[in-house]
Design goal:
With 172 residues, the protein is an alpha+beta fold. It has one domain: Regulatory factor, effector binding domain (Multidrug-efflux Transporter 1 Regulator Bmrr, Chain A), CATH 3.20.80. The protein contains two helices and ten strands, in the order E-E-H-E-E-E-E-H-E-E-E-E. Strands 1, 2, 3, 4, 5, 6, 7, 8, 9 and 10 form a ten-stranded antiparallel β-sheet that branches. Strand 3 and strand 4 form a beta hairpin. The chain is globular.
Length: 172
C-alpha cells in the first residue's frame, strides 16, 4: 500500500546516528545499526523522541550511498567515536506513507514520490555539483503504527526547495 504524497513543513529535529556507506545490496545492515543506536541511547540513559530512520546523504547508484541510521532525540546529545549527531533540516518536504508487502515496495515508494513531485513541478533540495547527489533531507522513518492489515508503516520524506527560482546553476 502506498498513500498519496503530500507537502508539509518540518522543524529542525535533533538525532543521533551511525554513519556508513552501503551499496543497494548491503541495506540489510540497517536493522543491526538501528539496534546499536538504541543500545547506545540506553547506555546514555537517554530516550528516543521519535522513530528510527535511514537518511540518504549521497546517492550515486554506481557507487556506495552515504547513509545515516539513527533515532530522533530531544534534547540534543553528544556523540562519540561511533555515534554522530545531526538534525533533520527544517523546511518544506514531500512525504508519503507506505507498507512493504514485496521486496521491491521500498523502491516503488521512491519512484512514486519522485514522479508525484515531478508532476507538481517541485524541486528536491539536492546538490549534484560534486558528481554525487548530496541530499538536503531524504529520510525513511520506521513508523510505530501498523496498517489495517498489520504491516509495518514507513514514512518516506524528501526535502524540497521552497522557491525553485532560488536554484543556483553551476557553470563549472
Amino acid at each position: 500500500m502506498i498513500e498519496q504524497p503530500f507537502r508539509n513543513i518540518r522543524g529542525t529535529q535533533p538525532y543521533v546516528a551511525i554513519a556508513t556507506a552501503v551499496t543497494m545490496d548491503e541495506f540489510d545492515i540497517v536493522g543491526s545499526l538501528t539496534g546499536e543506536v538504541y543500545a547506545w541511547l540506553e547506555r546514555q540513559g537517554a530516550f528516543p523522541a521519535g522513530p528510527s530512520f535511514v537518511r540518504i546523504l549521497t546517492s550515486d547508484m554506481t557507487a556506495k550511498l552515504d547513509i545515516e541510521v539513527g533515532v530522533l532525540v530531544d534534547p540534543p546529545l553528544k556523540g562519540d567515536e561511533r555515534i554522530v549527531v545531526g538534525s533533520i533540516p527544517s523546511g518544506s518536504y514531500v512525504t508519503l506513507f507506505y507498507t512493504v508487502e514485496e521486496e521491491n515496495d521500498h523502491v516503488q515508494a521512491n519512484v512514486e514520490i519522485q514522479a508525484w513531485a515531478s508532476n507538481k513541478g517541485l524541486v528536491w533540495q539536492i546538490d549534484g555539483s560534486s558528481g554525487a547527489y548530496v541530499w538536503g533531507g531524504r529520510f525513511t522513518f520506521d513508523r510505530p503504527d501498523k496498517s489495517s492489515d498489520g504491516n509495518q508503516v514507513f514514512e518516506l520524506t524528501y526535502q524540497i526547495i521552497d522557491n525553485p527560482a532560488d536554484i543556483r546553476v553551476s557553470t563549472e
